[in-house]
C-alpha cells in the first residue's frame, strides 16, 4: 500500500555530536529545568501524552467541520504540523530507531511491531493528504471538508489505538527484553535523541502551541471534557 522506503522521504535526524551540555537530563518538559533521570518508558509516556493532546485538537477540528463551524487554517494547519513534526518525525521515528529494534529477536511481538510500523507509514500518508486540505479549510468547500473529516477520523482512530497498544502490549516488555543496564542505556539514548531533535527547550514549546490551539477551540482546560448535567440526555 505504501512505499517501503517512506522513511527516506522523512526528515531523519542524526544521532551524532551530542555534547554533555545538550543531554536531556530527565522527564521535564524542558531540558533546562530538570535534574532527575528519565527512563525510556517515562519518556515514551510523556511523548504519547503530547501526541494525544494534539490528536484531541484534531478531533475537535473534525467536530467543528461536521458542525459547519469556521475553522481557522492556521489552527488546522498548525495542529497538523505538530502531528507531522512531533508525532511522526520525532516520536515515531525514535520508536523505529531505538524501541522496535530492541525487540528484533523477541518473536512474541514480531506481528505487533509489523502492524505498528505499517501504521506509522499510514499516519505519514494521511498527514500528507491532510496538508492541502487544512490549508484550504477557510474556503468552506464541502468536498474538501468531507475529505478532511474522513482523513482526520482515520488518523485519530488509528493513532489512539496505536498508542494504547504500545502502552499496554509493548512498552511494559522493554524491561524484559532490555534488562538492567541495557534498559538504563536505552533511556539515556532515547533522551539524548529527543533533545537533539527538539532542542534545549524540549517539549515545552510544542505544548505551548497545543495549549494555544486548545484555548482557541474552547478546550483549553481539562474540565471542558467533563460531561455536564445537560449532556446526560
Ligand atoms: Fe508507534
Ligand atoms: Fe508511540
Output the keywords.
233 residues, mainly alpha, Four Helix Bundle (Hemerythrin (Met), subunit A), 7 helices, globular, disordered N terminus, binds fe (ii) ion
Structural summary, described in words:
There is one protein chain. This protein has 233 residues and is mainly alpha-helical. It has one domain (38-226): Four Helix Bundle (Hemerythrin (Met), subunit A). The chain contains seven helices and no strands. The protein has helices at residues 40-66, 73-99, 110-135, 142-170, 174-177, 181-198, 204-217. Helix 2 runs antiparallel to helix 3 (110-135). The longest helix is centred in the last third of the chain and has 29 residues, at 142-170. The protein is globular and about 55 Å long. Mean pLDDT is 86; it is low at 1-26 and 31-36. It binds fe (ii) ion (2 copies). Residues 48, 91, 95, 163, 166 line the site of one fe (ii) ion.
Amino acid at each position: 500500500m505504501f512505499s517501503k522506503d517512506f522513511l527516506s522521504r522523512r526528515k531523519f535526524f542524526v544521532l551524532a555530536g551530542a555534547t554533555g551540555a545538550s543531554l536531556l537530563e530527565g522527564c521535564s518538559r524542558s531540558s533546562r529545568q530538570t535534574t532527575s533521570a528519565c527512563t525510556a518508558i517515562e519518556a515514551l509516556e510523556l511523548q504519547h501524552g503530547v501526541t494525544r493532546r494534539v490528536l484531541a485538537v484534531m478531533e475537535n477540528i473534525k467536530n467543528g467541520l461536521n458542525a459547519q463551524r469556521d475553522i481557522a487554517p492556521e489552527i488546522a494547519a498548525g495542529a497538523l504540523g505538530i502531528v507531522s513534526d512531533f508525532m511522526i518525525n520525532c516520536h515515531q521515528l525514535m520508536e523505529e530507531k531505538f524501541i522496535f529494534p530492541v525487540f528484533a529477536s523477541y518473536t512474541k511481538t514480531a506481528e505487533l511491531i509489523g502492524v505498528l510500523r505499517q501504521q506509522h507509514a499510514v499516519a505519514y500518508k494521511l498527514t500528507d493528504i491532510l496538508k492541502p486540505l487544512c490549508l484550504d479549510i477557510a474556503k468552506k468547500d464541502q468536498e474538501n471538508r468531507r475529505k478532511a473529516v474522513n482523513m482526520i477520523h482515520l488518523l485519530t482512530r488509528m493513532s489512539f489505538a496505536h498508542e494504547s497498544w504500545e502502552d499496554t502490549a509493548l512498552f511494559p516488555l522493554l524491561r524484559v527484553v532490555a534488562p538492567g543496564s541495557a534498559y538504563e542505556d536505552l533511556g539515556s539514548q532515547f533522551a539524548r535523541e529527543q533533545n537533539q531533535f527538539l532542542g534545549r527547550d524540549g517539549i515545552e514549546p510544542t505544548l505551548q502551541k497545543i495549549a494555544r490551539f486548545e484555548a482557541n477551540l474552547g478546550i483549553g482546560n481539562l474540565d471542558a471534557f467533563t460531561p455536564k448535567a445537560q449532556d446526560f440526555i
